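Handout, page 2. Input:
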Amino acid sequence: MAQLVPKLDAAGVNALLRKAFPGANQAQTLEIVQVGPGRLHMVAPYRDGILRPGGVISGPTLMSVADSAAYALVLAHIGDQLMAVTSQLNISFLRGAQPGDIHAEAELLRLGRRLAICDIRLWTEGPDRLAAQASVTYAIPG
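Output:
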């Protein structure tokens, strides 16, 4: 497999997301903290309203963070092609995500001309206590 080289660094991806989604609260709060070859680390700061009964972070919130991390990872490697869209998202919830910042470690498993396949690991307590793992496929415009 060819070496994956990002076209955008963390600051570039953050700027692109804020430009593309100027009115979206999530795009303004998500922070890409690191981009590397085939990898990205993102943090979604904790905010009120994301807990489900039982005091853990809701599944839809984790799914949204996983999808956002995959989108950011794809953009980091293909550049300003904002029309890339989710074509598949499969998530496994491994344990309740305790209240706190949500970390997403995203890895690009395959980057083709039409599809990008990503693995996303989510946690709040630490990378050794994963709350969820997602496989996300993005369709890339041609």
